[in-house]
Amino acid sequence: MNEKIREIRFDTEKARCFFSKILAFTLGPVELKDLMEQNLVKLVDVRLASDYEIAHIPSAVSIPKDELEDNTEKLSKDEITVVYCYNEQCHLGAEACLILAEYGYPVMLLEGGFKTWTEDFRFATE
User: Fold this and answer.
1) Cα–Cα nearest to 54, from 82, 95, 86
2) How much helix, strand and coil, in percent to the nearest 5, is found in the chain?
3) Where residue 32 falls among pLDDT bands split at 50, 70, 90?
4) Measured between alpha carbons, how far is 107 from 105 in angstroms, rounded to an integer?
């Protein structure tokens, strides 16, 4: 193992910072479902509009990642926007979150995306 990596792994302060950020800016399907039931988040599907039309997470609005910068008026800076894409290997969601953060929107990423919502947790879709 690389000695520098080994050294970092024993730096508990760096670990604390890293995991704090993960918890602050990502969430899983169960946490999302709870927040949706309380109407505490705006959910944005950044996949292709044609895939959104086939199926999407209930209450999600479709704003494909490539159209996001031109459609921020659909969002509010007074609520958390949760973004999702296809799956955990898809970076559309992370790219969309970066765009929204740069525009000053509170934002989180659904870990695992639509695939985890539907296949791993088998939650409903529309």
Assistant:
1) 86
2) 50, 15, 35
3) very high
4) 6
- 43 SS3 class: strand
Rg (CA), the chain: 16
The CB density around residue 85, as the number of other CB atoms within 10 Å, is 28
pLDDT value, residue 76: 97
Of 41, 49, 55, 88, which is closest to residue 68 (Cα–Cα)?
Answer: 49
β-strand pairing of 80-84 with 61-62: unpaired
Count CB-CB contacts under 10 A for residue 55. Answer: 13
Q: What is the mean pLDDT of the chain?
A: 96
Tell me which H or E stretch contains 26.
strand 26-27
